[in-house]
Amino acid sequence: MLPASLARYLGESGRDDYGNDVEAWAPWSPIRVFGWEPAKSTEPVLVGHERIVIAVKLYARKEDRIGEHDRLILEGRVYDVVGEPEDPNNNPWFQPGLVTVNLRRVEG
User: Fold this and answer.
1) Three-state SS at 53
2) What is the rounded distance in angstroms from the CA atom of residue 23 to the CA atom of residue 47?
3) pTM
């Protein structure tokens, strides 16, 4: 198992000076994950746009209950959880105890 850190999403914690919702996360806590696939990045084809979106599929223990909007640190980089984890354990034949968590990081 590999080390990672998890910050659980707590929801909205109020509004900022401009009236925008402010989101909050719990403090980082260490977890162990099974592994992750190589990162895949997409870049805009427009000149002058420097934003890169990096996507990673993470394999984590189901019992860690990673949820949408949580955040994870893998190898020093912060990723946002996208959607609910994909759970292959909902059948009577094969239950690996792992879920697939889709992660995203945006740079630029």
Assistant:
1) strand
2) 33
3) 0.85
